[in-house]
Amino acid sequence: MVPLSWYLTLAAALFCVGLYGVLARKNAVAILMGIELMLNAVNINLVAFWHYLEPQVMAGQMFTIIVLTVAASEAAVGLALIISIYRRRNTVIAEDVDLMKW
Amino acid sequence: MTVTVDQILFLITALVTMGAAATVVTAQNLVHAALALIATFFGVAILFVLLQAGFLATVQVVLYIGAISILIIFAIMLTRRVMQDSGPQTNQQWWLAAVFALALFAALWVVLQQVPALQQASGSLPIPGDSLQLLGFGFVDPNQYLLPFELASVLLLIALVGSIVIAGEKQ
Question: What is the domain partition of chain A in residue ranges?
Fold first, then answer.
């Protein structure tokens, strides 16, 4: 049988890879991909805890579905923002959008 | 220690998922990163199946791979510039980001080792046979999770209208 700690370690590793992607990449769409990796890691955590600790209570799966819904809507709005920025400034590199930097 | 089939399946899936995730954050070509992201989502769906959450695996495939990944590829294609995929894809502080990510993983791993209950929680408690029906009832029952369900629907509507307004063409 697979211990719970294996799933949690995998979710932690996925989260850290996503975190590196968010902090180190230039392209805004690549940053969004890192955010999606982090959200998937959280979902793995939730479902693993549901399966190993409280499978009779459906709240674990419901939480995961709500997180998935919020991730979908956030990806849609984020990508719309990126497309709008590209139309105005002709760049999607996050460092170049620095009009309000001091 | 004998290695069971469950553990082999989990290890293979974990390797595929982590390999694809590493490709997402290091690929030079953005379309390669998007395809690796799809592979990562598939790996997560397989993990959901291993955790006996079949409905969630289906929703993961349909939503993440079928909608969000397509949206990301659309955005990549619509925001392409010539010669954008050449040159470094990481900013100047990438080494600091790598250090921070490694430090966070080390801290989480240490914390996970401190809890001995996690290493032994390997038995599987019985999962109700009609879990999908329980899930459905939970979403429409006012005593349970009807309100979060409705709020999520309103959020999706707001996101839909908002992205159309933001990304729409100016008249």
Answer: 4-96
Return the structure tokens found at B124. 């599987």
pLDDT at B147 over 70: yes
Higher-pLDDT residue of A11, B79 = A11
Half-sphere exposure in the Cβ direction for B32 (13 Å, CA):
10
Answer whether A12 sits within 8 Å of B109, measured CB to CB. yes
Interchain CB contact of B114 with A (< 8 Å): no
- Could you tell me if the ipTM is greater than 0.90? yes
Q: How far apart are CA B166 and CA A82, in angstroms?
A: 10
> Mutation test of the interface with chain A: which of B35, B90, B114, choosing the one with the most A Cβ atoms within 10 A?
B90
Tell which CATH classification among 1.20.1050.10, 1.10.3720.10, 1.10.287.3510, 3.30.2130.10 matches the domain A4-96. Answer: 1.10.287.3510
